[in-house]
């Protein structure tokens, strides 16, 4: 009698770790897909958004989490539109990291742990 072979399910490949804010910043600085002035404008928009998150977490102002989410999504869409044709790997990494980055921004404890509350740029 010949033993039956047991089918071994393929081992899932581990997904890459989501980008953290520091590696995202470094890769955005290095990419040739975005011009210098556009990078400066994006940095200002990121700083403004982080300022809104700081105010939200300190319970200052009237901005809601839903409004912050909309601002976050719009900023990411803008970045992705700039990257999609000339730096697809970075665009894909941002897409994969989108939820992880949002979870840091929306959670006051994580926001503080990543030194974003103090006004430090990522």
Tell me what you see in this structure.
There is one protein chain. The protein is mainly alpha-helical and 122 residues long. It has a domain at 57-122. 62% of the residues lie in helices and 0% in strands. The relative contact order is 0.17.
Write a brief caption for the model.
62% of the residues lie in helices and 0% in strands.
Give the end-to-end Cα distance, rounded to a whole number of Å: 64 Å
Instruction: Kindly provide the radius of gyration, computed on alpha-carbon positions and rounded to a whole number of angstroms.
Output: 19 Å
Order of helices and strands: HHHHH
Helix content: 55-70%
Number of helices: 5
Shape: globular
Number of strands: 0
Structural class by secondary-structure content: mainly alpha
Keywords:
single chain, 122 residues, mainly alpha, 5 helices
What is this structure's SSE topology?
Elements: H1 21-30, H2 36-57, H3 65-83, H4 88-106, H5 108-113
Helix pairs in contact: 2-3, 3-4
């Amino acid at each position: 009698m010949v033993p039956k072979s047991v089918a071994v399910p393929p081992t899932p490949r581990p997904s890459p770790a989501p980008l953290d804010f520091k590696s995202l910043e470094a890769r955005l600085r290095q990419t040739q897909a975005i011009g210098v002035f556009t990078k400066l404008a994006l940095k200002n928009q990121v700083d403004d958004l982080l300022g809104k998150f700081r105010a939200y977490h300190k319970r200052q102002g009237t901005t809601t989490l839903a409004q912050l989410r909309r601002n976050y999504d719009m900023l990411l869409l803008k970045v992705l539109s700039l990257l999609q044709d000339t730096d697809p790997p970075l665009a894909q990494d941002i897409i994969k990291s989108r939820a992880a980055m949002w979870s840091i921004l929306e959670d006051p404890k994580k926001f503080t742990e990543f030194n974003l509350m103090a006004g430090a740029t990522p």
